[in-house]
Amino acid sequence: MPAAGAVSPACAQYDRRVNPQWVRLLDALQMNVRYTHCEGVELVTDEGRRILDFLSGYCVHNAGHNHPYLIDAVKAELDRKGPGMLQSHVPELAGELAAALCARAGGRLEKVFFSSSGSEGVEAAIKFARAHTGRNGLLAAEHAFHGLTCGSLSLMNDSFWRDGFGPLLPGVEFVPFLDLPALEKKLSTRQFAAFFVEPIQAEGGIRMADAETLRQAQALCRQYGTLLVADEVQTGMYRTGPFLAAHHFGLDPDMVVLAKALSGGLIPVSALLMTEAIYRSVYSSLKRSIVHASTFSENSLSMRVGLATLEVLERDRLGARATEAGDRLRSRLREALAPYEMVKEVRGAGLLSGIEFVAPKKLTPRAAFEGFMAIHPGMFGQILVMRLFRDHGLLTQICGNNFLVLKAAPPLVVSDEQLDEFVRGLTAVVDVMHRSSGFWTEALGLARRVVNI
Ligand SMILES: Cc1ncc(COP(=O)(O)O)c(C=O)c1O
């Protein structure tokens, strides 16, 4: 039976066969619309509504939706009728893309393992780190997001993601994000193969570290023989300005995971960049030439789209644009949101920004706010997301591991006018939140709908 909440006949099969709970959630949030055309930053629905995408599929669409150059590159690759997934040949495009990625990443990164998702990239890093160091332990930062396959999930401490899926990998431990004394205490046991860290924690709440702390964390890893793995699945590919967020901080990681935007938003692909020495620990002999591999790794369509995406991002100077547009967005947001007590901070780098909220001080809204937190800690943020979408045509989300932080991450092709539209829309919603009891009544209605389904 299709779920009762499903409204659109077009999504009935999805509702029946794939994920009815997702349909119910979208229904409850009044976000279950059909998109018929997506281009650049704009999404158009079958009812002719225009939505501005300030989420980018969680940092997938850096080049903008359906970039014509990327579409042409994919079409040309298909027309070539080459060995797309032959797996009995040398895929030359993989060599080309690996060289392009290593040249941009710099440092000591000389080799690449390709796969199809960020989680698979992290999985590979776990295996390569263990093979290289001969250690089993893995260290990660609290509230990180590294992916939902068993190994990647083992590197995430939030119970929301973990519950019901254990036992996960043994030997994994966590430290508060860039707490150097805690990190050193763990590292000094010399049990850890790798320390996994997002240079800017995305789902953790756009948490920023200062360069000095990150560099000290790197030095500690070196001192105790633990590899530093930078998870740049969201932050890489010019999202925060430079090619890697690690470049903001002068880091020289042992491995880097890229995914999401490398796909051009069209063909899934991820890349694990590593040093020559790490690579040799895995592919150490002819016999071990395919000891870590995946069917879809190095397929020609994803390699082609990765190359074309780099071309577009660089030809159109979208890294520089991310820096300039992000600075503009944050300064406008800070100015517009300054009068509102529930806005704690606007932060970020390039076009990865977070707006953090806090409980109101006044008694009545505070009671409502705390009530929602008790029903579900994500409830307050979802009202924000819903109102932005419904009332202002703005698509965004709260962070997966920090529900009080709203994320703003539009495609890097976003215009100044579109940034200003976001600032106006968000300011209007924040204003309603502070001035009108309707915001809280509506929130209560949503709470009832969500709790009842
Ligand atoms: C920082 C980070 N690492 C890894 C992943 C996992 O990537 P995927 O969903 O492609 O498996 C994500 C996904 O959101 C992520 O944000």
Kindly list the characteristics that best describe this protein.
453 residues, alpha/beta, 7-stranded mixed sheet, 17 helices, 44% helix, globular
How would you describe this protein?
It contains 17 helices and 17 strands. The protein is α/β, with parallel strands linked by helices and 453 residues long. The strands form four sheets. A seven-stranded mixed beta sheet has the order 4-12-11-10-7-5-6, with helices on both faces. A four-stranded mixed beta sheet has the order 1-2-3-15. Strand 16 and strand 17 form a beta hairpin. The two termini are 15 Å apart. The N terminus is likely disordered. The site of pyridoxal-5'-phosphate (PLP) has 15 residues, from helix 6.
In one word, what is the shape?
globular
Strand content: 15-25%
Bound molecules: pyridoxal-5'-phosphate
Q: Report the sheet with the most strands, covering strand number, pairing sense and barrel closure.
A: 7 strands, mixed
Strand order of the largest sheet: 4-12-11-10-7-5-6
Sheet/helix structural class: alpha/beta
Helix content: 40-55%
